[in-house]
Amino acid sequence: MKSFITYSSISLLFIALIFQSCKKDMSPMSEPDSPYTLNYGSFPPPNISPDNKLTKSGVRLGRMLFYEKMLSKNNSISCGSCHNQQNAFSDTNKFSIGVGGLPGGRHAMAIFNMAWNTNGYFWDGRAHLLREQSLMPIQDHLEMDETLPSVISKLQATTMYSQHFKMAFGTETITAELISKALEQFMNSIVSNNSKFDQYLTGNASLTQEEERGRFLFFTEYNPSFPSASGADCQHCHGGSNFENDNYMNNGLDSDANIADIGRQIVTNNPSDRGKFKVTSLRNIELTPPYMHDGRFNTLEEVVEHYDSVVESSTLDGSFLQQTPNGGLNLSSSDKAALVAFLRTLTDNTLLNNPEYSNPFN
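Given the sequence above, the corresponding C-alpha cells read:
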C-alpha cells in the first residue's frame, strides 16, 4: 500500500511537471477583481448571474479550463475538442467522440452568446445554469469520463492553477463549484454579433438580390391566401438579436411513431414535451453542420427542404399547423436557394478569429 501511494504521488508530480513545462506563460492577472468588459453592441443587456460577474482573471481561468485536457479521464480531450472555435464552437462530427472512442448521443451544440440564454442548457434543458452544464460533460462516460475529485486533484497539483484560482476567486483551494464558475465566465464571454447581416443593419454592408429575397422570406409570415406575398416565417422561432426564442419545440422532424429521442420529455416527464428540443441560434449556422439534435441533415439545403414540408405529430408546434394542410410552404427552388444565401449572411468571421477565445496553450 505504501509503495502504491508513493508511485501515485510520483506519477502525479511527473504529470504536473510535464504540464507546466509545455505550456505558454499563463501567469495570473495582477488585478483579481478587475471587471471584464463584454462588448455586445446593439444586443440587449446580457443575463449574467449576480453571483458570478465576469472578471478578467475569472474569464482567463475559464478559458484555460475550457482548453484543459486534464479535465478528461486520460488527459486527451478538452471542452474545446468538441467545441471548435473555427466551427463556431461546435463539432462537425455527427456525434462527438469521447475518450473511450464512443460517440455521444446528440450533436454537440454551438457555444456563443450564452449570456443571453435564459431557459436551460443542452438540447433537452436538463441543466438549469451554465455552470451546471459545464460539469456534466466531464462526468459523462461517453464524453470526458472523469470524476470531479480526480480533476480537482490534477489541477491542485499544479502551482499555476492554484495561483489562477487565487486571483479569480480569492482562494488556492480548487473546488468543483469554482471550476464551474470559471467555465461559466468564459462561455458567457463568447459573443457573436459581427456577421454580414449585422453590418447590413448598421449600413456597413449591402445584401445581394438573392440574399435580400432570402431576408424577405425569413422575416415574412406564411400566408397561403396571398402566395406572392407569403414568406417562410422563420423569424417566428428564430427571431430577436440572437435568431432564436430560447424555447423547446417540436419542429416536425418525425411522426409520433418515429420519434426515437423524446427530447424535453426526458426532463419534464410531460407527454406534451415529447419530441421537443431547444431552439438554437441560427447565427453561424453555415459553420455548424450537421443539423438538428441528431445531426440528420448535412446541408442547409436539406434543412430548408425539411421546413418546406414538416411532418405532423401530436406535439408539433402550432406555428406549423397552418402550412401542413397546404402541402408545406410551397417554396420555389430559387426561394430555397435565397433562404440559404440569407442564412450564410449570419456567419461571423470575427468570432472565428478572436484571440480572446482561442486556445491559450497553442
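Residues 2-21 form the longest helix (20 residues). Try to locate this feature in the C-alpha cell string yourself.
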